[in-house]
Protein 1
Amino acid sequence: MFKVSTLSRGVLNLSNTFTRTYRPMTRCRGTNTFTASSKRPFSSSLLLQHGHLKKPKKGEELHVTYILKDGTQKTFEVSAGETLLDIAQAHNLDMEGACGGSCACSTCHVIVDPDYYDALPEPDDDENDMLDLAYGLTETSRLGCQIKMSKDIEGIRVALPAMTRNVNANDFN
């Protein structure tokens, strides 16, 4: 258990003891001392989940191949439901995803192999608007944040474009 107490100058003091049970922060009767405990370590920021993939179950693995800017190919086993952006970032490929996968930029632009393009759902208006800003747009261009892996696109191959463009409000001043 850790204790938080207010010192005379308003400075917080944390003791070093810690337990692994959960109880909300409570004030000790008649004092300015608070006690709390948690199932996770004390931290002032949230754990970032971006790029953390679920390990595929045995027999349910899907495969995706990225063709990198230098022409090399990398194939990964992934789970259904993972986006191409999350897969690329989890494997340290050069795909930025500046908007965090919210379809508000074109930095996760990929060029889909024509053999797989028709198996994908149609892009919505937001995705088409962002694709208009993408560098090197092709007939089979899509945003990696909008493509979720499924059995319909097992073995999909996507190429990363030679460069990306991150357009922001400062570009128009």
Note: The mean pLDDT is 78.
Protein 2
Amino acid sequence: MSRDDVMAAYLSEREVLAPMSQGRSDRATARALSITDVTVTKRMANTFSKLGLSLDESDHRRVPAVVACLRDRHR
């Protein structure tokens, strides 16, 4: 996998964070980005994994994911 492929994957995962940070559902995010609900779910799972966020159902992983994205953006 080339650096461009890695960056494209990273960017595609991050693009789902913007609608999520606005409180959009997976379905609304999918519609906004012209992708499938399954694609949104996969990208978010990849993002959660890379951020080391647990799979515990009692945790809200979306909030820490958005916070991490915003921190990274302001560095």
Note: Residues 3-73 form a domain with the Arc Repressor Mutant, subunit A fold (CATH 1.10.10).
Protein 3
Amino acid sequence: MTLFATDRLWADAVVLEGDGRVLRVQSTRDALLCLKNHWLETDGPALAAAKTLCERGLASDDDPGLALRAFIEAAKEAGFRVNSWTG
């Protein structure tokens, strides 16, 4: 498992609701951990893209908004209700 020394905070948190759970995600690292440990689906193109963009965002200077948008798309694909002020 890759360990990331930095995190990339988002301007606004994303709150996901689904399967009797509420998840509050406010950074790229939070999103990656959520995708790996708390996801309703284990497969899908948006999930794969979000994991890739989160990992790349933590390892580089990529705009955190790329990971945020990919995370929101993966959440929608997985059937979460997404509450966000940015997407």
Note: The chain has one domain: 14-84.
